[in-house]
Design goal:
Blueprint (H helix, E strand, L loop, with lengths): L8 H4 L3 H72 L1 H36 L12 H4 L6 E6 L4 E6 L5 E2 L5 H9 L9 E3 L20 E3 H10 L3 H9 L4 H15 L18 E2 L1 H11 L3 H8 L2 E5 L4 E5 L3 H4 L5 E9 L3 E10 L3 E10 L2 H18 L2
Antiparallel strand pairs: 1-2, 1-11, 3-6, 4-5, 7-8, 9-10, 10-11
Helix pairs in contact: 5-8, 5-9, 6-7, 6-10
Length: 387
């Protein structure tokens, strides 16, 4: 068997090996160069990246430093402000306090202004009797007195009037003027006794009295029963016991009426038994106001009862006004009166809610009960309507 000899590379390519060897060396050099270039590029990028990082760090540090400096500046400024506030605290506090007080005052004034205006309007509003308190046309038709005048003394406001300008006899309401004129004497020893005489008897109406001729009373007791019980002989004795006598006393009564602004008021005697003793419901309000200034008139007219020593014994007297006697109203002055020509009369200075003075004058009721009921009705109107 024949074998074909295989050619060997070393034999067929005698020049290739040196070439390949040289080529390997060159290739290695190229590869090394490329590798070095790659390393150089990588190192350059790394250095650039580190430089960028370092720059960014510098910028952040600078920014942080700037912020820190700003914070420090603000802290210093705040410290300086605090220092200035502390150093000028009193002045600035005073200024702020004054400003706050002014602002508060302005606000308070703004709030208080409507309140003050409301209070002023309420205070300046005239009082009136209210329909919800029974002051209705139907109720007024049931008033028995022919002439009525109701005056709020505090404001000078007439609250109700009926025929208040009509001149009419006033009967024993006269005794309020009798008491005032008698008390106006400069020297009047009230403890001295005064005797009833025949000159004190009623020769006009021929009324009777428990005070008999010869009875002796102190002047104080004469005044007391004339006002409280409308004792006619006591009033007659008082008018006689006056400098110049009874005529001078009557003249003084009329002069006092004119001085009080009562042009339609006239007196003929001190008892009121004469129908010529006349006035109006409106003018009697002035008489009541004047009488209220006398402490003895106030106390005596409101006393409910009194035991009187008449020299030969004692007499028990009671108040002729049942509103006062039974405590149905609160008043500071009162007086009643009756003769046939006048009907039943009553004047009062009521104290509404125990403090607010209102004058009530009523003339011409046909009965004493009608006059009393009028007083109760008017007092209810007042207590409900007024503060």
């Amino acid at each position: 068997m024949l074998s074909t000899p295989q050619p060997r590379m070393t034999d067929d390519f005698p020049l290739l090996l040196p070439a390949l060897a040289k080529a390997g060396t060159i290739t290695r050099l190229v590869l090394c160069s490329v590798f070095l270039m790659l390393l150089t590029m990588v190192a350059g990028k790394s250095a650039h990246a580190q430089a960028a990082v370092a720059s960014a760090g510098k910028h952040r540090a600078a920014a942080t430093g700037a912020k820190g400096r700003k914070r420090q500046i603000r802290k210093k400024a705040a410290g300086a402000g605090t220092s200035r506030t502390a150093s000028h605290g009193r002045h600035r506090t005073g200024g702020h306090a004054a400003a706050a007080a002014a602002a508060t005052g302005t606000a308070a004034a703004t709030v208080a202004a409507p309140v003050a205006a409301t209070e002023k309007a309420s205070a300046s509003a005239k009082p009136e009797l209210l329909s919800r308190c029974g002051f209705t046309e139907a109720s007024r038709r049931h008033v028995f007195s022919r002439a009525v005048y109701v005056l709020d003394e505090e404001t000078g406001t007439p609250l109700y009037e009926r025929n208040a300008e009509t001149v009419a006899p006033i009967a024993s309401v006269t005794k309020l003027m009798t008491a005032m004129v008698w008390l106006d004497q400069k020297q009047l020893p009230l403890g001295n006794r005064l005797e009833v005489t025949e000159d004190d008897l009623d020769n006009l109406k021929f009324t009777t009295s428990r005070l008999r001729v010869g009875a002796s009373l102190s002047r104080a007791d004469m005044l007391h029963i004339a006002l409280m019980s409308s004792e006619n002989r006591a009033a007659a004795a008082m008018s006689r016991d006056y400098p110049g006598g009874r005529a001078a006393f009557i003249a003084a009564m009329n002069a006092r009426a004119q001085a009080l602004g009562m042009p339609h008021t006239h007196f003929e005697n001190a008892t009121g038994l004469s129908p010529e003793n006349v006035s109006t419901a409106r003018e009697l309000a002035e008489l009541v106001k004047a009488a209220n200034r006398y402490q003895l008139i106030r106390s005596d007219s409101l006393d409910k009862q009194k035991m009187i020593n008449i020299g030969r014994g004692q007499l028990q007297y009671i108040n002729s006004n049942r509103l006062i006697r039974y405590g149905q109203v609160n008043a500071s002055v009162q007086k009643t009166g009756f003769i046939n020509e006048s009907g039943h009369n009553m004047v009062l200075r009521l104290l509404v809610h125990d403090r607010r003075p209102v004058i009530v004058t009523m003339l011409g009721s046909d009965t004493a009960e009608g006059s009393r009921l009028d007083g109760v009705r008017i007092a209810k109107w007042l207590n409900c309507s007024l503060n």
